[in-house]
Amino acid sequence: METIGADIVIQVLREEGIDVIFGYPGAATLPIHDRLMNSPIRHYLMRHEQAAAHAADGYARATGKVGVCLATSGPGATNLVTGIATAFMDSTPMVALTAQVSTSLLGQDAFQETDIIGITMPITKHSYQVHNVKNLASTMRQAFELAKTGRPGPVLVDLPRDILASKCELAGERGASTLKMNGKRAETPEQIEKIARALNQSERPLIIIGGGVKLANAFHLIRQLIEKANIPFVTTMMGIGSVDAANGYNLGLIGTHGNELANRIVHQCDFILAVGTRFSDRSTALIEEFAPLANIAQIDIDPTSIGKSIKINLPYVGDIRDALTALLPLVNEKEKSEWLQRIEAEREAAEKKIANGSGCGQAGDFIRKVQEAMPGETTVVADVGLNQIWTVRTWKARDPRSLITSGGMGTMGFSLPASIGAKVGCPERAVVAITGDGGFYMNIQELATVGYYNLPIKIVVINNGHLGMIRQIQDLFYNDRFNTIDLGSKVDFVAVARGFGIPGSRIVVDENPQSGIEAMVNTEGPYLLEAVVDPNNYVFPIIPPGRSNIEMIHDRLD
Amino acid sequence: MTVRENTISILVNNKPDVLARIAGTFSGRGFNIESISANITRNPEITNIIITTIGDQETVIKLEKQLNKLVDVLEVRDLTDVSSAQREMILVRMKVTASNRDRFTQIVDIHSWKIVSTDADYCILEVTGDRQEIEDSLSLLETIGMEDFVRTGIVALKRCSPQQIG
Ligand SMILES: Cc1ncc(C[n+]2csc(CCOP(=O)(O)OP(=O)(O)O)c2C)c(N)n1
Q1: What is the pTM of this model?
Q2: A295-300 sheet: strands from edge to edge
Q3: Residues B73, B139: one domain?
Q4: Does the beta carbon of A239 sit less than 6 angstroms from any atom of ligand 1?
Q5: From CA A291, how far away is CA A280, in angstroms rounded?
Q6: CA distance to partner chain A, nearest, from residue B142 (Å)
Q7: Chain B residues within 8 A of A122 when measuring between CB atoms
Q8: Domain that holds residue A492
Q9: B79 CB-contact burial (10 Å; exposed 0-12 / middle 13-18 / buried 19+)
Q10: Which of A353, A372, A404 is the last residue of a domain?
Q11: Do residues B24 and B51 share a domain?
């Protein structure tokens, strides 16, 4: 067989250690799909390109490797867009390959031509359109390098059909990187010394762990720092699980849907070491009143993340591992009994206000039971809505990559396809996808993928018959004028699952959830558990829009 | 923070989509490009784009960081506060009739402006200068029969040579 451009694509994928891609064919991708038959790379045929992007994203989040998705030109490419944006917002390393019409047809409104480079400009780290097969290998190599270096993110490579089909030789050895290294400005040791001094002098220090700690594989270092210096920590939604949740220093999730304790302590601390977080509005609530007493040090690889929304007293641009390695020997092993005591008192006060610990009601209790029934090595993939908040507030994430969710973008429909990627990436781990009924509808076709490949994913649909999170907002802030949130109760999800070849059952969480949970855990292979909850089961406390993070409300009347 | 006009000089790889990415970086953050000029440098693979934009210093610094993240951006230099030469050019079409010819000729002579094209009733005038000079020239020409004009963006060059790229 003669070598063609598609072989170079596969050659670079192999070089990069890629053994799985998630995709969907079209006439324009066929050179690649054809040559994939001769390669050990497994191609998962999803049932929608959006799902291919989410699966690649889930794969990357679960494994720490680059996820790859592949779609055809035109509608295939545009279907990837939500998935690419989701990966971009959470800095997932991903390479999206799109086929394109032949170079001779570019710009002619050819059949299935779309300017995917233009469309994805603001949601990719970079994108390339290959115009000459000579540049194909170097472009693909650069795309991978870019996806995983610095602040990771999605990179798109648009591959015109004639380039994929054109005869050529396989690429030679990889040359030296020509990539401009953004954010590689070396920080001086003094900067770390300053941070260490401020940390050592502070009386009420706090660490904020963001998603960057996972991306940088800095779990051990951050744990050492926490333990050595006795510093309590909070996490953003993306930082959950970076350090074992059972660790006594973990005060929980900050932000609008975070734990009361975490938010109150942010308000009281006198020093913050923020690691790998960009201080998103979800984390800070009303920015003007965020951490009013704190001197803030921020470590991040992306210079644009530093001081984007708040003033940073001690910035450090660089790799989190380098920063923490330098910082560790400089911090004092200090008793902070007074501070920790004060935190304990706050903890008691916060817990008293919340009836059952998590503020997630029957849904939270149910999720806890699901976790108890599942193996310790389980990855949970939460969707978006109340179900996301219930999950992130009750699931005890014990490993860094064991809780996956769309944080920055909040993409409904993420969990089912992302769980496919997570399962394919880590087949040895159990995988639970938790979703609301609304989000489930958004990529429900992926039941077919789960069934076809017989992926043993446990799908938990928490059915409140409503767009629950929006319902809560209407209830609280629109004088309970409910509109456009009723999803009805006519759909038989168990029958739907059965139609896709997936067994399932339905339970009412208020009655006897255990039977359904047991059936799910004891059934081999995929399973769908529909769990009916009361639509009035919300999440509390929350921070209303425009308020600071100590102004949490505890019920509808607050 | 005071809002002012800023001049940013950007060295980029000379590629088709670079300008779109730069424009997107501005528009995505609500910045307007007041003026723009671009052309290749000594190294034809590198283009120098000079943009002026209005904003306070802090926001402009954030914008520069964002520009720096673009893969094809090689260097971003804020020329607002550094010593630099900044010039613009206008081409002005004048209607020249018996009633304004003398005054027009006189003004052109005083300023040593250059006439680049003439026919029976019209001529096109070339004026260069810094922003203020251009503004003043336009006001003056407006009073003596200016019909239309085009204006380049500012081109700016740092006075002492920056380290060469490329
Ligand atoms: C794709 C998309 N569309 C709309 C929204 C806005 N949104 C956020 S939460 C939510 C309701 C989710 O309802 P459901 O999936 O049933 O979950 P629940 O809140 O009931 O747990 C909506 C519509 C979104 N986040 N994503």
Answers
A1: 0.95
A2: A250-253, A233-235, A205-209, A271-275, A295-300, A314-317
A3: no
A4: no
A5: 14
A6: 41
A7: 24, 28
A8: 361-532
A9: buried
A10: A353
A11: yes
CA distance A326 to chain B (A): 25
Which of A334, A353, A372 is where one domain is finished?
A353
Residue nearest to atom 3 of ligand 1 (CA): A412
Give tens-digit pLDDT for A339-391.
999 999 999 998 888 765 678 999 999 999 999 999 999 999 999 999 999 99
Q: How many domains does chain B have?
A: 2
* Structural domain count, chain A: 3
**In sequence order, which residues have a C-beta less than 8 Å from that of residue A431 and are 6 or more positions away?**
A378, A379, A380, A381, A419, A422, A423, A456, A457, A458
Each residue's pLDDT tens digit, B24-39: 999 988 899 999 999 9
Residue A436 Cβ contacting ligand 1 at under 6 Å: yes
Q: Is residue B164 part of a domain?
A: no
The two tokens of residue A558 are 């607050």
Cross-chain residue pair B65–A303, CB shorter than 8 Å? yes
> A307 CA to chain B: closest CA distance, Å?
9
- Angle between the A513-522 and A361-373 helix axes, to the nearest 10 degrees? 30
Q: Which DSSP state fits A27?
A: G
Q: Is this complex's ipTM strictly greater than 0.90?
A: no
Same domain, A220 and A367: no
Residue A444 in contact with ligand 1 by CB distance below 6 A? no
Of all protein residues, whose CA lies closest to atom 9 belonging to ligand 1?
A385
Residues B93, B148, single domain; the answer is yes
Domain extent at residue B119: 85-156
B66 reaches A (C-beta below 8 A): yes
Task: Report the nearest atom of ligand 1 relative to the CA of A383.
Answer: 15
CA A276 to chain centre: 14
Of B112, B103, B89, the residue nearest B141 (C-alpha): B103
For residue A436, how far is its CA from the centre of ligand 1 (angstroms)? 8
A residues 143-162 lying closer than 8 A (beta carbon) to B: 146
Handedness of CA A368, A369, A372, A377 (dihedral sign): negative
Question: How far does residue A426's CA lie from ligand 1's centre (Å)?
Answer: 27
Query: Distance, CA A81 to ligand 1 centroid (Å)?
Result: 18
In a shared domain, residues B94 and B77: no
